[in-house]
Amino acid sequence: MVLIKDNHLRLAGGVKVAVAAARQGAHGLTIEVEVESEEELRQAIAAGADRILIDNQTPETVGAWCVIARKATRSPFIEASGNMLLSTVRAYALAGADAVSVGSLTHSVRAADVSLELFPR
Fold this sequence. Notes:
Layout: E1 2-4, H1 6-12, H2 15-26, E2 31-35, H3 38-47, E3 51-55, H4 59-70, E4 77-81, H5 89-95, E5 99-100, H6 104-107
Parallel strand pairs: 1-2, 2-3, 3-4, 4-5
Helix pairs in contact: 1-2, 2-3, 4-5
């Protein structure tokens, strides 16, 4: 899988160019594009992205953008990400996202002491 993020889009010169370059070099891999605006969403759909990563948007915006994406001839898989909380996952799922990424599951987890001490008799 190839994930095209905001820095890649800037360096490539836009969504269309970035997706085309990824397709040329990825040889059949799934292409996911991170979008932060409706215009980027529309460009990613037009460029044929397999997956769309909607970043840092409200559930309402995700819902509106899902409606746009679902109207495409080949509707992409939609992932919502960015500042997600376990308490908001349901709202994003109900908005139409196929997946919701919650980074706090890994970057903000509290460590648990799971050591096992053995003592000979």
